[in-house]
Specification:
Helix content is 19%, strand content 35%. A hairpin with a 2-residue loop joins strand 3 (42-45) and strand 4. With 114 residues, the chain is of the alpha+beta class.
């Protein structure tokens, strides 16, 4: 089992979510987050300087069986891609154990995706 965490543009999140759904990855969590990359930018509006380095992003997290890792990565890469700096990152981590609380199922059997 692997945990996939992706940080994507807010404007691309709906596409990422739909693409994951179409790939039968339906059980996921997401948060609105702010982050800062290597781009340094500022905005001056009506003579007032604003710091716009804190960029709005969506942080997506879900756990899949090993067989679904490459499919999940491909879907996110395709849906989140704009070709510009700031498209985001994807992280993959090992999951040692998973237990479904309601049934007590463990490991792969506790996951929704097949």
């Amino acid at each position: 089992m692997k945990k996939i965490e992706a940080i994507v543009r807010k404007a691309k999140f709906a596409e990422v979510r739909k693409a994951l759904h179409d790939a039968d990855i339906d059980f996921l969590s997401w948060w609105e987050v702010k982050g800062q990359g290597d781009a340094k930018q500022g905005l001056i509006f009506r003579g007032i300087a604003y710091d716009v380095n804190a960029i709005d992003r969506i942080y997506v997290s879900f756990v899949v069986r090993d067989a679904n890792v490459e499919k999940s990565l491909g879907v996110i890469l395709k849906a989140a891609y704009t070709g510009e700096s700031g498209d985001g990152r994807i992280f993959v981590s090992d999951i040692v154990q998973s237990v479904r609380i309601r049934t007590g199922e463990r490991g792969d059997e506790s996951l929704y995706n097949k």
